[in-house]
Amino acid sequence: MEAKTLDKEMSDKISFITYIIPAFADAYKMNMQDAYRYLKKYGGLDFLNRHWWALHTDNKYYALDDIYEICRQNGGLR
Q1: Looking at residue 5, what is its pLDDT?
Q2: pTM of the shown model
Q3: CA-wise closest residue to 74 among 52, 46, 33, 51
Q4: pLDDT-based confidence at residue 78 (cuts at 50, 70, 90)
Q5: So what's the pLDDT on residue 28?
Q6: For labelling alongside 49, which of 14, 20, 68, 78 has CA 20 to 30 A away?
Q7: Residue 6 banded pLDDT, cuts 50, 70, 90
């Protein structure tokens, strides 16, 4: 059986998402599970999946603010 490897773009996307969720949790004083649930419930994860490439080139604080704003627009009140 041949082992499959992730292409560079997918690897970069996973690395960014696994970096930004804990950063979001820290910035908004949540634990990791609550941050994940919040992002999933209010569209933050969808936004991350669609726009990770642009977000990862931005300053971390601007990226976190953009993600928070998307969640807020979708009903998040954190």
Answers
A1: 72
A2: 0.86
A3: 46
A4: low
A5: 96
A6: 78
A7: confident
Length of the chain equals 78
Give the pLDDT score at 44.
97
Report domain extents, the chain: 26-78
Which is nearest to 47 in space by CA: 77, 9, 8, 20? 20
SS (H, E, C) the chain: CCCCCCCHHHHHHHHHHHHHHHHHHHHCCCCHHHHHHHHHHCCHHHHHHHHHHHHHHCCHHHHHHHHHHHHHHCCCCC
> pLDDT at position 67, please?
97
Question: With b meaning 16 or more CB within 10 Å and e meaning fewer, what string describes 2-14?
Answer: eeeeeeeeeeebe
The C-alpha atoms of residue 58 and residue 43 are separated, in whole angstroms, by 19
